[in-house]
Amino acid sequence: MARPLHVRIVSHGLQLVASALLACSPLAGSEDRRDVVGADGGSGVIRDDAGNISYTQATVHTAGLRGKGLALTINGAQAVPVPSDGIWKVPLPAPMSTIDILVATQPIEPHQRCDVTKIDENVFTVVCDDQLWNVSGTIVGYEGKGLKLGLFDDKDDAIDGTAHSLFNAAIAGEFMFPRALPDDSNYQVRILEQPTEPRQDCVLENEEGFADGFDITNVKVTCTTKSYVFSTVITGLRGTGLSVRATDGDYKIDNPGLTTYADAPRPDGFRYDIKILTQPK
């Protein structure tokens, strides 16, 4: 009758299995059912005369594996490296009635997280996803509104300049972009819009780097409020004794031209008022 023929490619102690059909005759003259069942299609299942089942191998289906270094433990002892995606036959050191497989080491380059699911007593799936890393930092000196930050990775920036993630700041303090970065990617934080009311200039520190195995937490945004010189131009003045009252004090004006009314620049949003205090004579 037709039986599956399993072609095995051995790697790191695992057997990568592909199946074909082969016409062959049943085993004849065997008195030991363990030989018959254990050899049937390479299933790794042994059943004795009393019907008790044990296993000589486990089948592991891996998907999404891009990194390197993934290793599994079998019943807490046997460490088995898994080099790539595929359907792997994992030989057991001795027949086992119960099999538990856990991840011993997660992949790196890129960093990934792999999760094991038991499908049957000796059949498991291992599904791997790329690790994602948060990008966060601190905003200091922010007093206005409308500050907008953009997080760019190498893929987004190369395509169309669209930000991977946006953050609209409401207040000073800690911040985190809502979308995380994939492992093994370059990143850059940019200021897309500066604050208004009051107008401020914000600058960045530690705004670019490489996401590789950990969250990024050291981005810093420092904002300072714009300031302006408070002055007027006097024309047509011929007499003396002109004085004006400004918001921050009284000023005597003796000569025409530019007159500055404050010793220091005033911040954006400063409310001012100028009135004639005395007319010239």
- Mean pLDDT equals 80
Number of strands: 27
Strand residues, percent = over 45%
Largest sheet: 7 strands, mixed
Spatial gap, N to C terminus: 125 Å
Name the helix and strand elements from N-terminus to C-terminus, one letter apiece: EEHEEEEEEEEEEEHEEEEEEEEEEEEEE
Oligomer: single chain
Low-confidence stretches at least 5 residues in length (pLDDT < 50)?
A: 1-12, 17-41
Briefly note the structural class of the backbone.
mainly beta
Shape: rod-shaped
Alpha plus pi helix count: 2
Integer-rounded radius of gyration: 37 Å
Q: Considering DSSP H and I runs of 4 or more, what fraction of the residues is helical?
A: under 10%
Mind explaining what this structure looks like?
The chain has helices at about 35-40, 155-160, and strands at about 1-10, 15-25, 45, 55-65, 70-75, 80, 85-95, 100-105, 110-120, 125-130, 130-135, 135-140, 150-155, 165-170, 175, 180, 185-195, 200-205, 210, 215-225, 225-230, 230-235, 240-245, 250-255, 255-260, 265, 275-280. It is mostly beta strands and about 280 residues long. The longest helix is centred in the N-terminal third of the chain and has 7 residues, at about 35-40. The protein starts with a strand and ends with a strand.
List the helices and strands and how they pair.
Elements: E1 2-11, E2 14-23, H1 33-39, E3 45-47, E4 53-63, E5 71-74, E6 78-81, E7 86-96, E8 101-105, E9 112-120, E10 123-130, E11 132-133, E12 135-140, E13 148-153, H2 154-159, E14 165-168, E15 173-176, E16 181-182, E17 185-193, E18 200-205, E19 208-211, E20 216-225, E21 227-228, E22 231-234, E23 242-246, E24 249-253, E25 257-260, E26 266-267, E27 275-278
Parallel strand pairs: 4-10, 12-20
Antiparallel strand pairs: 1-2, 2-7, 3-4, 4-7, 5-6, 5-8, 9-10, 11-16, 12-15, 13-14, 13-17, 17-19, 18-20, 21-26, 22-25, 23-24, 23-27
